[in-house]
Design goal:
Order of helices and strands: EEEEEHHEEEHEEHHHHEHEHEHEHHHEEE
Shape: globular
Distance between the termini: 27 Å
Oligomer: single chain
Largest sheet: 7 strands, mixed
Length: 383
């Protein structure tokens, strides 16, 4: 067994003082008042590993020309089978920088130029290769609003309006839903004659609510349109971004429906029409609604290494340091369905944590050591 001492330890649910975090074989043993086993170091502050719930890291890569960006495939507007994991390249320098900043896990998603864009993947930012990086699947990426209607020069059938994009999406879902209904109503012999393609099988999972749609939507009416689709088909969804929401009512609706928001990025320049009402001040509407939410980087729109920095806006609006840390650890884990492994430093969970030189919410503090599943990934002297 090994341990590290913390003057202050953020567990992900509370703050404790002058304790030891003990771990072995990659998992947390417990938080102890006395050292047991090998003491690896003493640090001012420990937190759980940071988790980025919406990122294109490893798909849009540092120092590579825009032409090699793999976040959007331009062959068709409805793409179900592309897998973000297949475009992940672990030699992206941004992955190393994320780890050095304590961001050890990312949910990588295809881009939002396509109405349906493909499968997401939660990955280890520190893995040797993309196969070893995979932690779990987190649903299918979809997009609403400006982005899909701005891709008319790409290949395939492309919408020029929001209603056109919704028509294409609704038509595809309806096609699969009707085929599924025929299958369920058919006798056993007739069922054998109804064959689903791989794409249709993936959409059956979506229609059954077993695979969530992670839906790019910035503006109030784009989210309202998404909610109509949810009502029609009983979909499980997350709202990704919501940066153009400048009134609380739509967040209240999401709260009532139990739909989480993956919010952000907070420090990006509003470079397109659907972001013209973007402001950090909109955070108060999200907080006042009581909706469940997580906080993204949307790397490279804002670098993954700056994920924790975005929590300062929540501090400015009265949230505590503990709540800020929870936001990028426990709450981000929960929205990705990772709460059984990550997000808090509890017995049995992965020993993935960050040892800070001081208060992580102080501008001068930095990760002095970073551990992923019990292994030392970064030490400040390595720089």
């Amino acid at each position: 067994m090994q341990s590290v001492k913390a003057e202050v330890l953020y567990t992900g649910t509370r703050v404790v003082h002058d304790v030891y975090l003990a771990f072995e074989e990659g998992s947390v043993v417990g938080i102890l008042e006395e050292s047991q086993g090998e003491l690896l170091g003493e640090y001012p502050v420990l937190t759980p590993a940071l988790i980025d719930p919406h990122s294109h890291i490893g798909m849009v890569r540092s120092g590579e020309p825009q032409a090699e960006d793999e976040v959007n495939d331009r062959q068709e507007s409805l793409l179900v089978l592309p897998d973000a994991l297949d475009s992940l390249q672990m030699d992206d320098a941004a992955l190393r920088e994320a780890v050095e900043a304590g961001v050890l896990y990312s949910c990588i998603v295809p881009g939002s130029g396509n109405i349906l864009a493909g499968r997401s993947a939660v990955v280890r930012n520190y893995a040797l290769d993309s196969s070893k990086a995979l932690v779990k699947r987190a649903g299918l990426k979809a997009a609403m609003g400006y982005n899909p209607m701005s891709t008319t020069e790409w290949r395939g059938t492309r919408p020029t309006t929001r209603m056109g994009a919704m028509a294409l999406l609704r038509g595809k879902l309806e096609e699969v839903a009707r085929k599924e209904h025929r299958y369920q109503e058919a006798e056993e012999q007739e069922r054998k004659e109804i064959v689903f393609s791989a794409e249709e099988d993936a959409l059956r999972e979506v229609l059954a609510g077993r695979s969530p749609l992670r839906v790019h939507a910035h503006k109030i009416d784009d989210i309202a349109a998404l909610l109509r689709l949810v009502d029609e088909y009983g979909l499980s969804v997350t709202v990704e971004h919501a940066m153009g929401v400048d009134k609380p009512e739509i967040f209240t609706q999401l709260k009532e429906r139990g739909i989480p928001v993956v919010y952000g990025p907070l420090d990006a320049f509003p470079y397109k029409p659907e972001l013209r009402k973007e402001s950090w001040r909109n955070v108060r509407h999200l907080l006042d609604s009581g909706a469940e939410f997580a906080l993204m980087s949307d790397h490279p729109v804002t670098p993954s290494r700056q994920l924790l920095l975005q929590s300062r806006w929540f501090l400015r609006l009265g949230r505590s340091g503990q709540e800020a840390v929870e936001l990028v650890t426990r709450k981000n884990a929960e929205v990705l369905g990772l709460q059984d492994r990550l997000g808090t430093l509890e017995s049995g969970k992965w020993a993935s944590f960050v040892c800070w030189s001081g208060d992580p919410l102080h501008l001068a503090s930095y990760p002095a050591a970073v551990y992923g599943e019990g292994e030392l990934l970064h030490a400040e002297e390595d720089l």
